[in-house]
């Protein structure tokens, strides 16, 4: 099993999206790579903690590759937009790819460079090692499973059947 942490706006929809992909074993939402220890949602939503709303994705690389995970990621983010995804505004909604295995960096950069060919503007998605990840509060975990009509910034047609 491998792990990657992905930030792509509001973590509710990003988590639900990745949970529906074959080979994804587990997900959890939380706060990544900020400068505040054990932040709360109330703190993160002020855009002052440096944290990204992110999804910790565990996947079976015998079923799905990192490249396929990243291909799925690029389908649901606006990578040239800083501090916003869809209608959600704030630095916590920026896009980011946080890796734990240094060997993954080459594949992540190659994926970003391939994706860049689709855009005139530069991709601003942060790519860096995972420094920290704090689980979000329990009510955020599996939010759209618990609240099927809840908010999601990802268009429903992007979800895999």
UniProtKB/TrEMBL annotation:
Which SUPFAM superfamilies does the record cross-reference, listed alphabetically? Peptide methionine sulfoxide reductase
Q: Which GO terms describe its molecular function?
A: peptide-methionine (S)-S-oxide reductase activity
Q: Which InterPro entries match?
A: Met_Sox_Rdtase_MsrA_dom (IPR002569), Met_Sox_Rdtase_MsrA_sf (IPR036509), MsrA_MetSO_reductase (IPR050162)
Print the keywords alphabetically: Oxidoreductase
Keyword Plastid applies: no
Q: Which domain of life is it from?
A: Bacteria
What sequence ranges are listed for the domain Peptide methionine sulphoxide reductase MsrA?
3-153
Q: Which reaction does it catalyse?
A: [thioredoxin]-disulfide + L-methionine + H2O = L-methionine (S)-S-oxide + [thioredoxin]-dithiol; L-methionyl-[protein] + [thioredoxin]-disulfide + H2O = L-methionyl-(S)-S-oxide-[protein] + [thioredoxin]-dithiol
Q: Which Gene3D superfamilies match?
A: Peptide methionine sulphoxide reductase MsrA
Which residues are the active-site ones? 10
Give a single Pfam family match. PMSR
**Is Oxidoreductase included in the keywords of this UniProt record?**
yes
A single GO cellular-component term from the record reads: cytoplasm
Instruction: Please provide the Gene Ontology terms (biological process) for this protein.
Output: cellular response to oxidative stress
EC id: 1.8.4.11
This chain's function reads: Has an important function as a repair enzyme for proteins that have been inactivated by oxidation. Catalyzes the reversible oxidation-reduction of methionine sulfoxide in proteins to methionine.
The record's section on NCBIfam families has:
msrA
Task: Return the similarity comment.
Answer: Belongs to the MsrA Met sulfoxide reductase family.
Protein's recorded name: Peptide methionine sulfoxide reductase MsrA
């Amino acid at each position: 099993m491998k792990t990657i942490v992905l930030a792509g706006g509001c973590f509710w929809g990003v988590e639900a999206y990745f949970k529906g992909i074959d080979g994804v074993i587990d997900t959890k939402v939380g706060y990544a790579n900020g400068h505040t220890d054990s932040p709360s949602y109330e703190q993160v939503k002020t855009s002052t903690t440096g944290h990204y709303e992110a999804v910790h994705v565990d996947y079976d690389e015998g079923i799905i590759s990192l490249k396929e995970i990243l291909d799925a990621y690029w389908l649901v983010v606006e990578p040239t937009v800083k501090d916003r995804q869809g209608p959600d505004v704030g630095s916590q909604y920026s896009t980011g790819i946080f890796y734990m295995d240094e060997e993954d960096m080459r594949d992540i950069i190659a994926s970003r460079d391939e994706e860049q060919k689709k855009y005139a503007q530069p991709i601003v998605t942060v790519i860096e090692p995972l420094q920290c990840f704090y689980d979000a509060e329990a009510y955020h975990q599996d939010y759209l499973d618990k609240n099927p009509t809840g908010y999601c910034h990802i268009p429903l047609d992007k979800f895999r059947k």
